[in-house]
Write a structure and sequence with these properties.
Blueprint: E1 5-8, E2 15-18, E3 27-29, E4 36-42, E5 45-49
Antiparallel strand pairs: 1-2, 3-4, 4-5
Bound molecules: zinc ion (ZN).
Length: 71
């Protein structure tokens, strides 16, 4: 089952779809302005512009178990 999450870019107001397996703290690129956005909330999804210029390049390879903290 995949839940599609649609979010709005805080920078350019472009709406785009989030991958359903993203979690809080992950960063995505806006499809409109290519800015890096960090996911700060999931329900409802909320994005925040990443101000930190020292951005790690996360490789989402999808293998390995990630622990999920659910509140
Ligand atoms: Zn944008």
């Amino acid at each position: 089952m995949s839940v599609e999450k649609k979010v709005k870019c805080p920078v350019c107001d472009e709406s785009f779809q989030l991958d359903s397996d993203l979690e809080i703290g992950n960063t995505v690129c806006c499809s409109g302005c290519c800015v890096d956005l960090r996911i700060t909330k999931l329900n409802p999804p909320k994005l925040e512009e990443v101000m930190d210029s020292n951005i790690d390049n996360y490789d989402d390879e999808g293998d390995g178990d990630q622990e999920e903290d659910e509140f």
